[in-house]
Write a structure and sequence with these properties.
Length: 520
């Protein structure tokens, strides 16, 4: 069948149809006509000539076999706490010196596959596994989760630079990107995300603010998200991004160990008296530069901080204690040269916070982007964005977020659909198995059984992979977010620095709406 040959429509269980074009399958919100519904529900007798398919004509059997292949014994269907880190970079877009709304550009770039995040109509999943979207007027690039391993800090910075250069190469001539904000996410145990966020705000936030922000910054966002902790601050790139990422990773790990009372942990830093403000954009808190009684950014390392149950200490002393606890949680997982990079910044003589923001270099959009090979997880996210033609069936993505992926499989004649659910941490296994054909028999036999009533929905267990016949509207599969705090605050920007950096809302760093579905 040619790529431009329309093969008909096939509905989900509640009216979210998919357009099938060759091996490509796209989600659409257009309602189906009566004729299209009749065509979509027309079924040919299932092919049961393969004895392996007819021996066990149970959809549950093939779904369980699919799960056993994709999730072998010992594999985790959720991100392990502290095992992955994510990054979102926001950029102000300027065309011929004038700031433009990126929402007017994003849909004309042909940048990737659209509509894989049901919570964000502006989002495109790129071949690299990253997501490109518009967060209000700003451009946002969200990297696929990165595995924690030696070299991951600098790799994260390199991937961020590569994605920015790739975006610049797709923009109209004369368009420049200016760094706007940085959001780091570290996987945490969902049951303790809120407690961990509060602990982090009172113990490690001041130290991260010194390492990440500039003298013009308003402060730090601390948001407990489903299965991760999000930390939002000043735009940083290069070595400053690597330092911030490594510190964020180690400090979140230290907080997780503290909550779990893990034995053998390093001395935990003193908890500070801090005036937290509620974030009215998402559930979480804003730690302003003046949250510690005095302005942290004016005196920097010499700022006097007030612990809850001790005499005042200098910000430098607190920074050293925080890094000692964070560093201890990273030994063996992070390259020694990267740990030494943070050592140098923490113990160095350079002013903290930085005197100037770390703004991405303003460059012409017409240049060759530097390619950076991501880790196995990033490559698996990239693999998941593509349509695949396999012997006896075609497969393409219909949903891809931080923690889950859904694919639609169809017979070559397009008369039978099935949906494959894969937790995001298992995408690497899934991609490897699909490439070598290890899943072909299982998926073909499931399709040969004919349509049943197995439904993938919010009440279905998503702890393991599975095959299904029906799919509820994809937005119902998203992990529920906590509602923002009720707030009487205005949504005005905070001060000249916030206006210059462009931060929005109560906390000022933007809504990061793209992350609702979990781009990172």
């Amino acid at each position: 069948m040619s790529a431009d040959c329309h093969a008909g429509m096939a509905p989900t269980s509640q009216g979210e149809p998919f357009v099938l074009i060759g091996a490509s399958i796209e989600a659409t919100s257009a309602p189906m006509t009566i004729t299209e519904k009749a065509n979509a529900t027309r079924r040919e007798p299932p092919d049961t000539t393969d004895p392996r398919c007819s021996e066990l004509s149970s959809a549950g059997h093939w779904s369980r076999r699919f799960a056993s292949l994709v999730a072998p014994v010992g594999s985790a269907a959720t991100w392990l706490p502290g095992a992955v880190i994510g990054l979102e970079h926001e950029y102000r877009v300027k065309l011929n010196g004038r700031t433009v709304d990126f929402r007017s550009l994003v849909h004309h770039l042909a940048a990737g596959r659209a509509r894989l995040d049901p919570a964000d109509l502006n989002a495109y999943r790129l071949a690299s596994g990253a997501a490109l979207t518009a967060d209000e007027a700003e451009a946002e690039i969200a990297l696929a989760p990165s595995l924690v391993r030696p070299g991951c800090g600098r790799l994260l910075a390199d991937r961020a630079r590569s994605e920015r250069e790739s975006l610049e190469s797709h923009l109209p001539s004369g368009t420049l990107l200016e760094g706007y904000s940085t959001h780091l996410s570290v996987a945490v145990r969902p049951s303790c995300a809120v407690a961990l966020a509060k602990l982090y705000a009172s113990s490690f936030s001041a130290a991260l603010m010194l390492l990440m922000d500039s003298v013009a910054s308003p402060g730090l966002l601390v948001r407990p998200r489903p299965s991760r902790l999000e930390l939002g601050g000043e735009f940083v790139d290069g070595d400053r991004l690597a330092v911030a990422a490594i510190f964020a990773l180690g400090s979140v790990r230290a907080c997780q160990a503290r909550l779990e009372r893990a034995g053998g942990q390093a001395e935990f830093p003193l908890r500070l008296r801090v005036n937290l403000r509620q974030d009215d954009q998402r559930y979480g808190w804003f730690v302003s530069r003046s949250a510690f009684a005095s302005d942290l950014y004016l005196a920097g390392r010499e700022t006097r901080l007030r612990p809850r149950q001790a005499m005042p200490i200098s910000a430098q002393s607190h920074l050293e204690r925080c890094w000692a606890a964070a560093r201890a949680s990273l030994v063996g997982d992070i390259d020694e040269s990267e740990l030494a990079l943070v050592d140098t910044v923490v113990g160095g003589d350079e002013p903290l916070p930085a005197r100037t923001p770390s703004i991405a270099l303003a460059r012409s959009s017409r240049h060759q982007a530097t390619k950076v090979r991501g880790d196995a997880t990033a490559r698996a996210f990239g693999f998941a964005t593509r349509a695949h033609s396999r012997p006896g069936y075609d497969l393409a993505p219909v949903m891809l977020t931080w923690d889950r992926a859904v694919f639609v499989a169809s017979t070559p004649s397009r008369d039978r659909l099935a949906f494959a659910y894969v937790p995001a941490p298992l995408l690497t296994n899934f991609a490897s198995l699909l490439e070598v054909g290890a899943l072909d028999e299982t998926i073909r036999c499931y399709l040969a059984l004919g349509s049943g009533r197995r439904r993938l929905g919010p009440t279905t267990s998503t702890a393991e992979p599975g095959l299904y016949d029906l799919l509820v509207p994809r937005a119902r599969l998203l992990v529920a977010e906590r509602a923002p705090h009720p707030s009487k605050w205005t949504r005005k920007r905070f001060g000249a620095g916030a206006i210059r950096r462009g931060w929005r809302g109560t906390a000022g760093f933007g809504n990061t709406g793209a992350s609702s579905g979990g781009h990172v």
